Amino acid sequence: MIISYVVTTACIDCKYENCFEVCPVDCFYEAANMIVINTEECIDCGVCEPECPVDVIKPDMIDVAGMWIALNQKFAEQWLDICQKGDPPADVDELGQKTDKLALLAEAPA
Amino acid sequence: MPLDTSKGDHDYPIPAGVFAETVTSVDHYTDRLFKFRITRPASFRFRSGEFVMIGLPNAEKPVFRAYSIASPSWDEELEFYSIKVPDGPLTEHLQKIKVGDTVLMRKKPTGTLVNDALLPGKRLWMFSTGTGIAPFASLFRDPETYEKFDEVVLTQTCREVAELRYGQDLVAELKDDPLVGEFAHGLRHYCTVTREDYRFQGRITDLMSSGKVFDDLGLPLITPDTDRGMICGSMDMLRDTKAMLEQFGLIEGANNRPDTFVVERAFVD
């Protein structure tokens, strides 16, 4: 049973920012180079999942979601609620394809 | 914040970012299903097929649940179609509402079951089970749906015949509606029941794989050349129906990248 959705690796340094616009409960929080979901506020409606062009949002019941549930919740509590869509970086398409970006995650709030 | 003192157990402040609207009608269909209509805030705009978060002013931090708006975008009121869950945090109380009561609604409508998320096509298939018919009740009463598609086929599957009533009443009323009645000829309504005798029985996915639904309606098999799909029901029904549409060659779309079918779970609580 899905309890929440989570944002995963490919968002780091990418941030298309299509996701939070469709969220009915405004549970997306952002920092310098990533967006996360507050897993306690998420109502798992699933509307955000197909909106991300790079497919980084996953339901929490899949295997790879494990560590991302804790990471999403931890940073959602520290970062700011995202409500204004900014411009994604110029090389967003290329950045979205890169894997293994966890080391690049900037943890400080924006 | 305004204090709502209209009811003894509802004197909590209305949360910020939330509309407080008034119930204008309530109709119970079975011991599990009911419909209610509320006033519509002047500034509130939405696309037919979207949902909102609904709650009651009965706590400091009220419980909100997602409800598809069952009325079309042009309606002056808002309609919702709900299940009744005996100990459900919201519906335990929501099922008791009366005309004049206050209902809370968060301001942001959203959803995937919208005409914008589909590429143009000849025929729109709407697959629903139970209260999953609600977003389609909005879409099939919206002239925009008939501008986009020549034919609209609504499939409604419930456990029992009595549960089909909401959809059947709406389709019958549609034909006489002064605003949208002329479009009604584009709508086909295919009802099936899974637990009782009825002229059409079984799960819609079984009826598609056997071909019976196409035979019954006199329609060709679904193809991405002409057909588009919207699915709203339980998680199991979504999974199975999505797999069936993908077998027919359709691809899942979204608001920012329209394609040939879209999916949304029917919210139950």
From TrEMBL, chain A:
Coiled-coil residue spans: none
Keyword Electron transport among UniProt keywords: yes
Domain (4Fe-4S ferredoxin-type) ranges: 33-62
Gene3D superfamilies: 3.30.70.20
GO molecular function, one term: 4 iron, 4 sulfur cluster binding
Cofactor: [4Fe-4S] cluster; [3Fe-4S] cluster
InterPro entries (alphabetical): 4Fe4S_Fe-S-bd, 4Fe4S_Fe_S_CS, 7Fe_ferredoxin, Fd_C, RnfB_subfamily
Domain of life: Bacteria
rRNA-binding keyword on record: no
Keywords: 3Fe-4S, 4Fe-4S, Electron transport, Iron, Iron-sulfur, Metal-binding, Repeat, Transport
Function: Ferredoxins are iron-sulfur proteins that transfer electrons in a wide variety of metabolic reactions.
The protein's name: Ferredoxin
Lineage, uppermost ranks: Bacteria, Pseudomonadati, Pseudomonadota, Alphaproteobacteria, Rhodobacterales
TrEMBL record, chain B:
Taxonomy of the source species: Bacteria, Pseudomonadati, Pseudomonadota, Alphaproteobacteria, Rhodobacterales
Molecular function terms, GO-annotated: ferredoxin-NADP+ reductase activity
PANTHER family (UniProt xref): FLAVODOXIN_FERREDOXIN--NADP REDUCTASE, OXIDOREDUCTASE FAD/NAD(P)-BINDING DOMAIN PROTEIN
Keywords on record: FAD, Flavoprotein, NADP, Oxidoreductase
EC number(s) recorded for this UniProt protein: 1.18.1.2
Matches recorded under CDD domains: FNR1
Substrates-to-products reaction catalysed: 2 reduced [2Fe-2S]-[ferredoxin] + NADP(+) + H(+) = 2 oxidized [2Fe-2S]-[ferredoxin] + NADPH
FAD-binding FR-type domain ranges (all copies): 16-116
The name this protein goes by in its record: ferredoxin--NADP(+) reductase
